[in-house]
Amino acid sequence: MIVPENLPCPAYVYDLPALDAHVRRVRQAVRDLELYYAVKANPDPELLRVIEPHVDGFEVSSGGEHAHVRALFPGKPLALGGPGKTDDELRLPAHRIHVESPHELRRLVATGREADVLLRVNPDLPVEGAALTMSGPFGMDEAGVQECRPLFTDRVRLRGLHAHLASGLDAAALIRLAGILLDTAHDEVNLGGGMAVSYADPDTTFDWEEYGRRVPLLRRTGQTVRIEPGRALTAYCGYYVTRVVDVKRVRGQAYAIVLGGTHHLRTPVTKGHDQPFTVLPTGDGPGVREEPVTLVGQLCTPKDVFARDIVTSVRVGDTVVFGMAGAYAWNISHHDFLMHPKPAFRYLSG
User: Catalytic residues, which ones?
Assistant: First the structure.
């Protein structure tokens, strides 16, 4: 990524041509499946405009996301998911509503609206190698599904199942789960997202071609299969660019302090990893050369860490470009802690 001239720091930079090429590749690979984008990963309007031509619809998880996407793309199909929906959210127009519990279904019926429903299931299946399992309050067990069945009416119709079980799974693991989940009499199954993204090895990406080739072979004739990736579509196009303001040692440990912090890019804290980065030698201040350095932000907490004990050279004034910042980054961060300035946003268009 080429840093734009006169870029204020800190700033988010999104590579829109790279995003377009990536989503185009995914669309081609999974052309026999319905493809929705999970807006929660990154709702930035410029990113959504690039994604929209390549997807069949968007998955939204709140009234706010619903209003945001509908204003941008009034005619695009929306699937409404998320636990704890309010009555107002249950009244929102949607192509599909992912119902999370029998009580939520009763409340949906009580609105008097028409709706097409997928029951979100939480089956007792082994999910090995996941970065995050969606257990606990998400979806229903078998007893909950059975309780829902007699509640459907001519106006509120059961269309199938929704099953987003985990995040961070490779193609082989998701294909195995798909084989189990598609073995159902339901005509429609949403397999969710969860495609693995490696922050330790960004060049290793999910095998979309293998997934798109094998999953359609697992469905029965006439069965609609939908997926709704988020992180795996947008993570690679985003960069958080900042500048080193201090380099120091504390009890022998070298620290580089950068403008901003994890209140702008919370991903490394939430996932407990080192955010991949590149140091551009734009500074001429004091620093260290080729030794373990911990990169931290300006927050008054020891948890404000981007990457720990990474061997690098860095000087005051250097530019640090954190990659893999296109998903679950700015939009999940606690922006107002210490009331630092918000980052700038820039978009590469060619």
Answer: 300
